[in-house]
Design the sequence.
């Protein structure tokens, strides 16, 4: 029993109080942070986090944060911090960090450890997204874009090994040399938390994700590119790796706004969608693609493909073009149901990401309205008759209560003890009881 | 050859293009252009203006024997994945000198090529008869950072590099960065992206090498004759760098009118400064 489509609330947490895209070179790297007021951001962050927390009650399958640096488009610089907050404020909903930008971090084991910590404290609710980071972030971090791809895959492999294999082990790679890889803690989900990898449709990314049986998340693109990417993903899974992908291996970031009527939705969403595409995504090529981030051959294929398909820059598209091309979905519940249904049937969409929630510069009330109508009037059309998100039908990775823990989790092999002078091991759990301690001395035991 | 990022049939730029010779050194196909007779002068390119026998090459070749190899990843020179940094390029260049049977050479380098040239001199000083650096990258001069050649808005290229007032015939098709497909078409754009990636491999992290601060004076101590040439209005490499290089190398300095593009916008003046310096060191038969 599984739902036809999963719904994720993905919030970039933009800081929209900046000049219009036409007046700035870029919303990344060089936009001065004198425009950023932490007191304004306080209200924003609180609202963003409350929207994500509320998504559990609304019935979303998951809530998602991601990592971006030094820009106004998305101000979550440390997504694992927010995931920790969300884990504390929610109980059942899945929490995705989509993702940590692996090559930007000096030691990938830090990511492995943080995700493991989050996974344990959340009771096994973490989805771990692994990304390279936007090209712009190589300008703002000083990291070398020419090593980005190599570092990414090596970091990914190291993290996976650290999660799934016993430590300590030695890692001797091209980019990381770690004598003792031996993470404490390890994640609670077995063999490891689900892994998502976003992509814009590049064959190489799709191939790698299909090969590893992870989930592929298409970033904001047109219907045409999404359909093509998903078809390629399925084809590679089936023809090259001999399996049919699960619907939950195909996700898509599809900013959606739903309201009472088509007209109402169209009117309400317009300024926010346009801020997102025209200003939030104002990122010229010389910011987006630092040299070496891709190969020249890949860049040529991309630019030729874009030219052949007439793909415009985000900030060059009109509202109607964005709707027409399928970059965004906007409408009444029935319109959204129809469009999502069509994408599930025709594209194989299994996870709608940014399906409701915040976009651009939306006020809090509008986000909550979007979430509530999505939950109550769209989600049920894609759910089993019980209306539940899938995670409420699956067993948690760890017990919720101490009594369940005591009843179901075997005692650890080692109990903590203190070796006494007389050679006895005093159990710490009962060592304070006189009958147990007896005449035991805490002098160090005599070694022979 | 695995991981070769450069194609052997790069697009032909609109002006000054010439068919290169190719030579395989350490398994790497390198492209080079040659002209002139006399003292061997090896001219190392910077991060732009590849695939050309430029007026500055020609003017220099009228007085000496110029050998202009293309750095790995530039023009038709391959960039194997094992080339990770300038040290690999230095070793490759040393082996290129051997392959061409060039004993001691006058070494000239522009921008990034100046940095590589200086390191070749540091490690193989006995192969370097003299060192001429044209607006060389590679030093940290506090308060005077090198402009970010990887992040510059293409709309500002002409002004930043000093191309605005240049003779159009001299700078036709010269683009000092990735820019956009509007400059020369998609293949040309992708090729420049690859070349800037090759430059990034050598200097993204870091944009300077603090070790030069104590290595360059050693060269001066060994008596290496060196010349550092700057543009009079270089907005890419602040003039403080020229002074610092000269201080570390005990070098002579010279200035050529123009911006960072001065070897291209003032090729004859540049060639004259370089050739005259070389001639001041050696007996050159004139005729």
Sequence:
């Amino acid at each position: 029993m599984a739902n036809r489509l999963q719904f994720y609330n993905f919030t970039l947490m933009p800081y929209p109080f900046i000049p219009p895209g036409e007046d700035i070179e870029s919303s990344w790297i060089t936009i001065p942070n004198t425009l950023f007021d932490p007191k304004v951001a306080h209200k924003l962050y609180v609202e963003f986090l409350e929207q994500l927390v509320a998504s559990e009650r609304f019935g979303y399958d998951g809530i998602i944060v991601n990592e971006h640096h030094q820009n106004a488009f998305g101000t979550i610089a440390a997504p694992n911090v927010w995931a920790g907050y969300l884990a504390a404020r929610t109980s059942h909903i899945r929490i995705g960090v989509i993702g940590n930008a692996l090559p930007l971090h000096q030691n990938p084991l830090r990511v492995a450890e943080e995700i493991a910590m989050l996974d344990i404290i959340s009771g096994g609710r973490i989805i771990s997204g692994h990304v390279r980071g936007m090209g712009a972030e190589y300008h703002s971090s000083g990291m070398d874009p020419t090593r980005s791809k190599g570092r990414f895959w090596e970091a990914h492999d190291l993290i996976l090994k650290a999660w799934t294999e016993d430590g300590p082990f030695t890692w001797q790679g091209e980019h990381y040399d770690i004598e003792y890889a031996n993470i404490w803690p390890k994640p609670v989900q077995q063999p490891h938390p689900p892994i998502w990898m976003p992509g814009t449709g590049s064959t190489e990314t799709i191939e790698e994700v299909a090969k590893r049986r992870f989930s592929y998340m298409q970033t904001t693109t047109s219907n045409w590119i999404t359909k093509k990417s998903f078809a390629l993903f399925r084809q590679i899974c089936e023809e090259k790796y001999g399996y049919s992908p699960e619907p939950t291996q195909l996700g898509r970031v599809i900013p959606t706004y739903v309201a009472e009527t088509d007209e109402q939705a169209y009117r309400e969403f317009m300024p926010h969608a346009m801020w997102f595409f025209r200003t939030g995504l104002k990122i010229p090529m010389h910011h987006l693609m630092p040299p070496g981030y891709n190969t020249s051959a890949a860049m040529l294929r991309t630019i030729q493909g874009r030219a052949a398909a007439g793909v415009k820059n985000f900030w060059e598209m009109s509202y109607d073009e964005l709707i027409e091309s399928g970059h965004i979905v906007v409408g009444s519940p029935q319109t959204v149901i129809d469009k999502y249904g069509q994408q599930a049937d025709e594209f194989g969409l299994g996870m709608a990401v940014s399906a409701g929630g915040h976009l651009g510069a939306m006020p809090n009330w509008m986000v909550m309205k979007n979430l509530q109508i999505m939950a109550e009037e769209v989600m049920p059309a894609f759910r089993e008759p019980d209306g539940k998100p899938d995670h409420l039908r699956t067993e948690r990775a760890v017990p919720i209560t101490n009594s369940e823990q005591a009843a179901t989790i075997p005692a650890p092999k080692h109990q903590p003890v203190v070796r006494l002078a007389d050679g006895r091991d005093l159990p710490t759990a009962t060592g304070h009881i006189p009958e147990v301690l007896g005449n035991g001395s805490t002098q160090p035991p005599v070694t022979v | 050859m695995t991981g070769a990022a450069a194609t052997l049939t790069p697009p032909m730029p609109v002006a000054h293009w010439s068919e290169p010779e190719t030579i395989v050194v350490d398994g790497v196909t390198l492209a080079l252009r040659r002209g002139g007779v006399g003292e061997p002068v090896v001219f190392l390119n910077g991060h732009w203006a590849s695939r050309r026998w430029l007026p500055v090459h020609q003017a220099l070749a009228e007085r000496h024997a110029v050998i202009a190899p293309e750095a790995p990843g530039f023009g038709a020179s391959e960039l194997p994945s094992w080339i990770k940094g300038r040290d690999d390029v230095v070793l490759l260049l040393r082996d290129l000198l051997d392959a061409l049977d060039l004993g001691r050479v006058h070494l000239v380098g522009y921008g990034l090529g100046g940095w590589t040239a200086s390191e070749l001199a540091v490690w193989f000083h006995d192969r370097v008869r003299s060192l001429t650096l044209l607006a060389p990258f590679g030093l940290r001069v506090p308060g005077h950072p090198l402009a970010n050649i990887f992040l510059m808005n293409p709309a500002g290229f002409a002004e930043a590099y000093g191309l605005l007032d240049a003779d159009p015939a001299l700078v036709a098709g010269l683009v000092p960065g990735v820019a956009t497909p509007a400059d020369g078409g998609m293949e040309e754009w992708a090729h420049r992206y690859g070349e800037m990636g090759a430059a990034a491999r050598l200097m993204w992290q870091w944009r300077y090498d603090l070790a030069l601060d104590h290595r360059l004076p050693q060269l001066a101590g060994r008596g290496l004759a060196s010349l550092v040439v700057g543009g009079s209005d270089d907005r890419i490499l602040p003039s403080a760098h020229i002074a610092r290089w000269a201080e570390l190398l005990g070098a002579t300095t010279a200035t050529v009118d123009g911006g960072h593009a001065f070897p291209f916008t003032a090729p004859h003046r540049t060639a004259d400064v370089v050739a005259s310096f070389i001639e001041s060191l050696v007996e050159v038969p004139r005729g």
Q: What stands out?
A: DSSP finds ten helices and eight strands in chain B. Confidence is low (pLDDT under 50) at residues 1-7 of chain B. Residues 48 and 176 of chain B are 5 Å apart (CA to CA).
